[in-house]
Design a protein that fits this description.
Layout: H1 2-29, H2 41-73, H3 81-91, H4 97-109, H5 116-134, H6 136-143
Length: about 140
Amino acid sequence: MNNNKNLTGLYYSKIVKSLKYLEYSYNHTLSMPLNPADMTDPQLEAWDGFASRFARTSDIFLSKYIRAFIVKDDPAYDGSFRDQLNKAEKFGLIDDTNTWMEIRELRNATVHEYSDQDLEKIFEKFRKYSPLLLALSKKLSDET
């Protein structure tokens, strides 16, 4: 049980660090166009960094932190990803399971090739969901 508490602390530290980088990329890309066809090479590179940081941060929280948080109290827990999100919602770690499923799907979408039109929609969603991720800093500090 103590090992699981240590895991939660380890993932918390990783999330906090990751959130700092995500916040920088989020703020850096706020004034940039969403359509890749309208972007310069440096802007495309900035969006690529933002996408990577979004994916990394959401993955640490969704795949690692939540699982460690649940297993801390129930070492035998073996639920599906959706089950984990449902438990996280009950524990108050997240507000809405469906929203966080969308974030997970968006994270997964970053590994595929898309047209400029598809990327514009993906970038728009990054902007939409980043404030939820960035709010984790306060929410998780209240939990630790």
